[in-house]
Specification:
The protein is globular and about 50 Å long. It is built from eight helices and eight strands; from the N terminus they run ααβαβαββαβααβαββ. It has a single domain, classed as Vaccinia Virus protein VP39 (Rossmann fold, 3-Layer(aba) Sandwich), CATH 3.40.50. Strands 1, 2, 3, 4, 5, 6, 7 and 8 form an eight-stranded mixed beta sheet that branches. It is α/β, with parallel strands linked by helices.
Length: about 240
């Protein structure tokens, strides 16, 4: 695993964050050092997916990045399903394909390039995963995307959503952000790396409050929503569709 040093060199003004080849090459180190309990999140996603995946359906990972969710779900899902990974970065999908090949991933799967801002084709889905992905979709298109996911799910299908979030109250929000930066310091990111990545993400990653995400899911038609993970300004929700 290559070490994340994307923001190690000082820049006059960091460009907007992009999932380029440079990022794809170090993404696994980046996400494990940047997202608290990322490994546990993935284990929980795989566990939830195994419970709700239905025989003969598709399991989608929208924003699949390097394929970590597929590798985790391969161990937990025993039913006959097809995995579909979608990402708008060719570099990420190439890295994903290489990881799956290296791991002898032997389940049927398909990798597709698509910008979720422009919509995505989803069919016969029992599980759809948005792990740290919806926050990168422009707010103008989020409700439409979530509604499309709901409508494409089979009965009792689920959306598993993990997001960086805003606290409901501004003081807690300031506190949680500071705790998060303390976490990154413990992962040996320098102050410059923290600052430059924050600036690069400023206009790209736009978080909602947990209550706003919950409302969006319910307005899309999901019958039940439950929080399954929470760490300061990170949260995971599962939403179930019932006809």
């Amino acid at each position: 695993m290559l070490k994340d040093e994307v923001f190690k060199q000082q820049s006059i003004k960091p460009a907007d964050f992009k999932f380029s080849k440079k990022v794809a090459d170090v993404f696994d180190d980046m996400v494990n050092r940047s997202v608290p309990f990322y490994g546990e999140m993935q284990r929980m996603i795989a566990e939830l997916a195994a419970t709700h995946a239905q025989h003969g359906t598709n399991v989608y990972d929208l924003g699949c990045s390097t394929g970590t969710s597929f590798l985790m779900m391969e161990k937990t899902i025993t039913r006959d399903v097809r995995f579909v990974g979608v990402d708008d970065s060719n570099d990420m999908l190439q890295k994903c394909s290489a990881k799956l090949t290296e791991a002898d991933f032997n389940r049927p799967y398909d990798l597709q390039v698509a910008d979720l801002n422009n919509g995505v084709e989803i069919s016969n889905a029992s599980v759809v995963i948005l792990c740290l992905t919806l926050q990168f979709v422009r707010p103008l298109y989020r409700e439409k995307l979530v509604k499309k996911i709901h409508d494409a799910l089979v009965d009792k299908g689920v959306l598993i959503l993990v997001e960086k979030i805003l606290a409901e109250e501004s003081q807690f929000n300031r506190d949680f952000i500071e705790y998060y930066y303390n976490y990154k310091r413990r992962q040996h990111y320098s102050e410059m790396e923290i600052s430059q990545k924050r600036e690069a993400l400023e206009n790209v990653l736009i978080p909602y409050k947990l209550s706003e995400n919950n409302l969006m899911l319910r307005e899309a038609g999901f019958a039940h929503c439950e929080v399954f993970f929470k760490w300061y300004n990170f949260s995971g929700l599962i939403a179930v569709k019932h006809e």
